Amino acid sequence: WNPSRNTIDGSEELYRIAGLGCGEPAPTLDAYLNWFHPEDRGEVARTITEALAARQPFSYEARIVRPDGGIRHVHANGLVEMDATGVPKVVGTIEDVTERREKDEALLRSSALLEAEQEATPDGVLVVDEDRVVLDVNRRFVELWNIPPHLVERRSDRELLEHVRPQIKDWQSFLARVEELYRQPTALAQDEILLADGRVFERYSSPVVSPAGQYLGRVWYFRDISERKRIEAKLQQQYDQLRELDRIKDDFLHAVSHDLRTPLSSIRGYSEFLADDLAGSLSPGQREYVAQIEKGAIRLEGMVNDLLDFARIEAGTFRLDCGQTDLRALIRGVADSLRPLIEEAKLTLTVSLPETPLTANLDSERIERVLFNLLTNAIKFTERGGRIALRARAEGPHLLCEIVDTGIGIAKEDLAKLFRRFSQLDTGRNKRGGTGLGLSISKAIVEAHGGTIGVSSEPGSGSTFWFRLPVQSTVCTPSDAAGES
Predict the structure, then answer these.
(1) d(CA 429, CA 44)
(2) What is the rounded distance in angstroms from the CA atom of residue 163 to the CA atom of residue 148?
């Protein structure tokens, strides 16, 4: 800029930055200042005029607004020179720093976001470079390790290690792991640190690697998990106690079930002797008492068998004792044994079976239990005067058995509960009767044979319980007979 002539001579690059053609007339200072953003124009003018008056070098950064509306960020450096006659002129350079400025702003934004994330995380964060110089720590790191401000400012990873040394319970192991990770730039690590005051920190470390694969440093994360470890220890203790109680319960059920079977068999046997007049003729009243004894023994025997099978299933000792069996004989036997209960309930039982045998490889005692459980359920949930149909047939390679009743039915939301352990529905004449194990054990028995079991029902329309067994089961083999019966 020649102040005496008030003209500015500029290079081709200057005009390109301003978005102007080189053939235009040389601008005056005012025309030059008009290139700049209105908010920056005054500062540029002040900087140039003050430098001219003081004969001093100057610099400024400002925004040029191009004729097309585009904005370029520029950085200017200048000085005042005197010619041979003592006339001053201002000379300098203008550099387009738009891209650099945008990158710097993006970097600042990223840095601000990263810092915000580090401060918001519950983890203490430590960042070091490849020479173990501390680049950054967050507030949580300082709090966790009680780092004094002057130590943070010193930026020394080794001094930080020395500071936390008294806080670590097993210092040698801690230090050895740190040094090992520094010797292995690509290694990741996650472990737990026990502190001398009883706290527990979770430590995670990850290398910082450039896109080109250059090792730039390492990031360390620390989280106080003391409360979580305390809760986990308490839960483990409670779990161990529950497992012990469960074991005691299983042992008790197994022992009691075994011990009760013998006297129950005697009760049933002698009640049948009395009913058959083997000890002399009975009066009508005596005969009624004997019938009640037999019905109670049947119910109790069913509960005991349920408990015994449940104990075996829980203990993992449940085994099948299989052999070729005619399902028809099992069905007839169960139906006959439950006649007293059916007559007492004033129900009608119809048994429909084919004339040809329904032979399959199965555990007859266990399938008898399934039939017993399903039929007693039908009796329990069918009102007086109702009907129960017990039927079976062959379906290809399977045998299908169905127990159909005209009882109260089951709500849709209750169907899923039926085959759960200790699950009972608060309906029927004998609410909450039994152990709540019958259906779940029946399911386990049928599935152990490789079969399936299910139910279809609607409230007020009765229920149909069914199970399907393979004729030649690949699961139930004669060799299973070696197991506990």
Answers:
(1) 99
(2) 9
At residue 261's C-alpha, the angle toward residues 259 and 265, to 5°, is 135
Residue 43: which of 57, 67, 55, 60 has the closest Cα? 60
Instruction: Determine the straight-line distance between the first and last CA of the chain, rounded to whole angstroms.
Output: 112
Facing residues of 209 across strands?
A: 215
Q: Helix and strand tally (H, E) in the chain?
A: 15, 15
Phi, psi of 46 (to 5 degrees): -65, -45
Q: What letter does residue 166 receive in the DSSP assignment?
A: G
* Helix, strand, coil percent content, the chain, rounded in steps of 5: 45, 25, 30
Tell me if 18 sits within 8 A of 66, measured CB to CB. Answer: yes
Taking all residues of the chain, what is their mean pLDDT, rounded to a whole number? 86
Q: Report the distance separating Cα 362 and Cα 322, nearest Å.
A: 5
Q: Count how many Cα atoms sit within 13 Å of the Cα of residue 45 in the half-sphere of its side chain.
A: 15
What is the crossing angle of helices 364-380 and 438-448, to 10°?
150
For residues 401 and 175, give the distance between their C-alpha atoms in angstroms, rounded to a whole number: 70
54, 60, 63, 65 alpha-carbon torsion, rounded to 10°? 40
Encoded tokens for 162: 């020395």
**In what helix (H) or strand (E) does residue 12 lie, and over which residues does it extend?**
helix 12-18
Tens of pLDDT, residues 431-448: 445 556 788 889 989 998
Distance between CA atoms of residues 26 and 13, nearest Å: 14
Name the token pair of 187. Answer: 């290694």
Tokens found for residue 64 = 């040029």
Q: Residue 98 gets which letter from DSSP?
A: H
d(C-alpha 199, C-alpha 297), whole Å = 60
358-373 tens-digit pLDDT: 999 999 988 998 999 8
Q: Could you give the CA distance from residue 191 to residue 225 in angstroms, rounded to a whole number? A: 12
CB 217 within 8 A of CB 130: yes
Two tokens at 323? 């052999």
H helical segments located in 325-363: 327-337, 339-344
Q: CA–CA distance from 473 to each of 169, 188, 230, 320, 323 (Å)? A: 60, 52, 50, 12, 11
